[in-house]
Amino acid sequence: MSIRRQELGDFLATLRRKCDPVAFGFPAGSRRRTQGLRREEVAQLAAISPTWYAWIEQGRDINVSSDALERLAQALRMDRTQRAYLFELAGRRDPSPPAAEPALTEALLAQLLSRIAMPAYVLGRYWDVLAFNAEAAHLFVGWLDGAGPYNLLDYVFFHPGARTLVEDWEARARRLVAEFRADSRASLEEPGFEEFIARLSAGSAEFADYWRRHDVLERQGGLRGFHHPVHGRLLYQQVTFRLVDHDELKLVMLTPRAADDTPGF
């Protein structure tokens, strides 16, 4: 029995025992020998076989579909965190993920970034730059110091200054596309996503070529070199964070490094 399957069974059993039978439409009764709902009652609420549900709680090696997990989540009235944990334990993708937490305003993001003493910016779902600080505007001269809207992929592939500013542009551009493909795996069926990719591919043969390669890479840190028109060669250590409850947002920070370090891609 795998640890993950055992944890899934224990998680469901614990939630079941915390449920008040009366609140779920079942009589409390004095003959109940277990606290909370019975296994067969959960199975009834989720429209699955009682035996099948018992096997799930027992951690048996069975295949639990996303549809069955969704019915269990609804039957046990799971909140967004419990539901996400359920699907993660089962190794399944949630077909109907709960709505995200209220979006952070761009004004609040900008206020937070202003307190960071190094170039920093926040990327949205399609890598739109939602907020950035003054240090980032000074680094990305000709882009973030100008009028928006701002998008990182638009900048890399369409802005004439990107090929000069970004050191080893081709390698960085190719890696960015691979990172974006991996990052956007949950957005592939969105009409807006298809339009976004079609626009980039139509406008840049290089983007179209990189996208067709189907390379995928996680967005990782590393040394990033720039050839600034005023300050010359600059080197930074890039670190990217995802925000809790706002997984579509990424905070990118660039820590200055000594100029004699060698960038790695």
UniProtKB/TrEMBL annotation:
Residues 11-83 form the HTH cro/C1-type domain. Gene3D superfamilies: 3.30.450.180, lambda repressor-like DNA-binding domains. This is Helix-turn-helix transcriptional regulator.
